[in-house]
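Hey L., structure's done. Input below.
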Amino acid sequence: MKKLSTLLGLLLLSGCSTPPPAQETEQVVLEPIAEINEVAAPISLTVITNPADARVRIMNINPVYKAGIELKEGKYDIEVSKAGYLTYRKWVSVDKKTILTVELDTMEASQSAQ
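Output:
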């Protein structure tokens, strides 16, 4: 009987014992992050001329000039010409969207004869 009471006591004690407290885990909430894509403005050149129908050429590249032409960063040899006007020619650095305004001067009669 002593064995039985000991066994019963052990069963009662083991049943009364409480399990160790569950450890609380910290929950991490991941919020979606908006992806930011920086869009670099294209490097371009627009030449506004007076007279408006003057011819614009970029002398150091092959593509024909058009308003808003996209270019690589660099220096460009710009020529603006029209019959009866003095030709404008200048090196221009282009590293962003560039707008160049050129007003041609008229040729005087003595200059056109030369």
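The first helix runs from residue 2 to 16. The mean pLDDT is 83.

-- N.
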